[in-house]
Amino acid sequence: MIEAQRLAVFREVAHRGSFAQAAQALRLTPSAVSQQMAALERAAQAGLFERSTRGVTLTAAGQALLRTADTIHGELHRAERALARLREQGPPSLTVATFASAGMLLLAPALAALNDREDRHVDTTVIESEPQQALAALDDGSADMALVYHFHTEQPPPSWADIAHRYAYHPLLRDELRLVVPVGHALARRSTARLDDVADEPWIQMWDLPGNALDALASAHGLRPKVACRAGDFPFMQALVAAGVGIAFIPTLAVVDRPDTRALVLTPTAKRYIGAYTAPGVPSNHASRALLDALKARATTVPMS
Q1: Long-range contacts of 231-235 (CB under 8 A, 24+ apart)
Q2: How far is residue 73's CA from residue 10's CA, in Å, rounded to a whole number?
Q3: Which secondary-structure segment (H or E) carries 127?
Q4: What would the pLDDT profile of 211-239 be if each residue is shown by its tens digit?
Q5: What is the number of alpha carbons within 13 Å of residue 179 lying toward its C-beta?
Q6: Pick from 296, 302, 291, 297: which is nearest to 114 by CA?
Q7: How high is the mean pLDDT of the chain?
Q8: What whole-number distance in Å separates Cα of residue 130 and Cα of residue 274?
Q9: Domains of the chain (ranges plus CATH)?
């Protein structure tokens, strides 16, 4: 039999890439960790590690076992939190990981509607995080729900498969990039613009997924734009547009209504798909199910023009 305690040690080794670092984190001796992993390999009847002077990497069998170890770790963490709530006899609680624009225009109104409707206040913790970090929080049991976005296709990207295949995905909203220009810009009086119209202007771009999506869009149309700035915050990007630093491409949900900029429909555009991941068993939890319903209801009312 594979013991849960050995799986916990194995997970630490796998994520840290070293017996010594895992031993330090777990307050064990390296010898004790090595013995635990040798016993685990015997129980699994397979080699789990490729050992080298730089540490360890997982074999195919190790990678398969890590998925199980991560799932068990997350479920145990969620169980501990649920038991603590029962001991304290407090209100139902939820932890939600979300990116900022969905938090402001989807999650906050949904939580307000939820607390207005429920008999008891739902004690909510919100973790602001980008999709990869939100999925990691879901995976290690520190979040019950993750609001995420992705580009290109309605289905989540294959690169999320290792984490996301263990959870249920609930699509919420389709969000398109808008071209944001200063109020005095030649295009500001128009309602639509083409990507070619700003090909020679300085661009202000986001890091990570939005920036990658725009880079791919530009490349697909043979454009090699001059990037004046890469930023990590959409309101900051829009402020830079107002200051004349360049033009920006901002998802509709994140565009701020301000008098010194204009947001135009972009052709062609990149679509940002927004959805929620829930952990196994979470939809059966009343508060989680109610929040998911409130998010879906809110998504139908969000103005996208």
Answers
A1: 231/204, 231/205, 231/206, 231/207, 232/206, 232/207, 233/100, 234/100, 234/101, 234/206
A2: 11
A3: strand 123-128
A4: 999 999 999 999 999 999 999 899 999 99
A5: 26
A6: 291
A7: 90
A8: 12
A9: 4-75 (1.10.10.10), 91-172+273-299 (3.40.190.10), 174-271 (3.40.190.290)
